[in-house]
Write a structure and sequence with these properties.
The chain is mostly helical. Helix content is 81%, strand content 0%. Helix 2 packs across helix 6. The longest helix has 35 residues.
Length: 195
Amino acid sequence: MEFIISFLSEWGYLALFICMVLENMNIPIPSEIILGFAGFLVSQDIFSFWPTVIIGTAAGITGSVVSYYMGARGGRDMILKHTAKGGLGARKMIAAKDWFENYGAIAVFTGRLLPGVRTFISLPAGIAQFPLPEFIILTILGTLPWTIFLVYVGSELGHNWTMILDYKLEIAAVCAAISACIGLAYYIYHKRKSK
């Protein structure tokens, strides 16, 4: 955590961009620390709110697309290689692709709102070859509110921004509840539409 804080303090928006790209490429750097501290810097008039949100969101999209391409380029072969011994590789891949065709949109969107899941959803989306333009749109729609929320809370808490880390479980629970409601609404809509 100290390294991230020091990096952001010294390198500003560039550090914010790099950290958020890495976080969305599945490197375990919590966005709560990156964006929470960025919010603190907003409260100190070192960062500005909307440039911070825009850079954080753009970096999140960039890292997600890189992760998507990692899945699309190498993920399928890796999974097939490691599951081929049991003869299930191709069947599992087809099942995953079918699942993503039916529910991929809601998985990508709601996954973006869930701590711990949000950065990893890009890889299976790439492996399943979920349409890239739709993936980018859903990533923007899911990443933007998360970024705004953490930067805003960090800026409001000021020197107490680390309280975000104390309430990670509560934040995760609220996000899970919101995602579940969105997922249920989408499922009901999808079922009615298919009838």
